Amino acid sequence: MKKQLSISVFFLITLISLGQSAVKSMLRLPDTGETTSYTTTFGEDADYSINPPFFINNGDGTVTDTITGLMWQKKDGGEMTIENATIYCDTLTLGGYTDWRLPTAKEAFSINNLQYVNPALDTNVFTKTAAQYWWTNNRQANDSSYVWVTNAGGGIGNHPKSETVSAGGTKIFDVRAVRDRITPPVIPNHYTDNSDGTITDNLTTLIWQKTPYADTLTWEDALKHADTLSLTGKNDWRLPNIKELESINDESVINPSVNTTYFSSMGVNKFWSSTTLPNQTNKSWYLSTQYGITTYDFKTLRHYVICCRGNQIVTSVINKNAVNESVTIYPNPAARLIDISSPLKSVIEITDMHGQLIKRIINSNANTTIDISNLAKGIYLVKVTNGKGVTIKKLIKE
């Protein structure tokens, strides 16, 4: 009973998101894991590397997430009702620990790897099972018979607890336990209004637009809008990936499912993320603020946009120097030859995504043709340095 009470208190504190105290159970927000490029338009998920997922297999049925600091059950505990899932975690002994619990919705979503589907997990880290969904300890705000669950496709949403097989349903809802390796600190304020049209999320340290863009945009146009946005003297705004976007969802409220003290203009709408659905690349993930589910839609449809900044390491165009915009790569994507044009004598360097130098050329002409036929298919960075500055662009080798 004592342990059940502590879990209930933790659950209650976690739901406090009205700008007051909040439990910081994750040290950092992990990246989605998506590394494949699906467009030449800058700003997609793969163009940024932000806390890439990294797990340690402890060899005792547990894995440690080095980004969040949480410890997870490697192989889930199997299908069961939500009531039994709570008991299961409360009584679990694994890896020599007895303080296991059901994860919050955000913790459960944090281990999703959006480069994969069915399951959207790194199966080198987590054992693949027959699960279609995984329980969390969050209930729908206005109906406790609905529980927030992550799914094998990569999303998160609210489902009737009766859908699982053990409750008479037809779907497989498994349990995966989590534990805190250190006592989560309580921060005094979840959000800070910066009084300049931006909001800081003190749990993730991301900075958000307070007011979303007024019109809807297609996904490609959303990427362009975010990449060219200038606000509060900053021009490093971007379209958030789906984990970042979901991080401002508040499971304790609906219609809209965000903290309206700080995000008063979001309303009940659909908001694009920069993350592509890998098995249907003409679709991208979005957040619906009716309840807070994440799902996907055709990129050609129009949804709303809210931008964020912070935490990023850019893996594509990292210096948008206006005087150097005339540097171009054609064709891109390319299979054999590329032409790089630069208005000045330049040093051209091609590296892989790990920073390994592949080619270095000193260009004395306006155009340089480079043979890339010996490169493996994938994404590379082309760095052009001249008297006008440095430009780094993404090159896709077909």
Write the layout of secondary structure elements.
Elements: H1 2-14, E1 22-23, E2 48-49, E3 55-57, E4 62-65, E5 70-73, H2 82-91, H3 105-110, E6 133-140, E7 143-151, E8 156-160, E9 173-174, E10 178-180, E11 186-187, E12 191-193, E13 198-201, E14 207-209, H4 219-228, H5 242-247, E15 270-276, E16 283-288, E17 294-298, E18 308-309, E19 313-314, E20 328-330, E21 337-341, E22 346-352, E23 357-363, E24 367-371, E25 378-386, E26 389-397
Parallel strand pairs: 6-9
Antiparallel strand pairs: 1-11, 2-19, 3-4, 4-5, 5-10, 6-7, 7-8, 12-13, 13-14, 14-18, 15-16, 16-17, 20-21, 21-24, 22-23, 22-25, 25-26
Structure write-up:
The protein has 398 residues and is mainly beta. The protein has 3 domains: 2-25 and 61-180; 186-313, Roll (Mannose-Binding Protein A, Chain A), CATH 3.10.100; 317-397, Immunoglobulin-like, CATH 2.60.40. 11% of the residues lie in helices and 30% in strands. The chain has 5 helices and 26 strands. The chain has helices at 2-14, 82-91, 105-110, 219-228, 242-247, and strands spanning 22-23, 48-49, 55-57, 62-65, 70-73, 133-140, 143-151, 156-160, 173-174, 178-180, 186-187, 191-193, 198-201, 207-209, 270-276, 283-288, 294-298, 308-309, 313-314, 328-330, 337-341, 346-352, 357-363, 367-371, 378-386, 389-397. A 4-stranded antiparallel sheet has the order 3-4-5-10, with no helix packed on it. A 4-stranded mixed sheet has the order 8-7-6-9. Strand 3 (55-57) and strand 4 form a beta hairpin. It is globular. Residues 1-19 and 313-324 have low confidence and may be disordered.
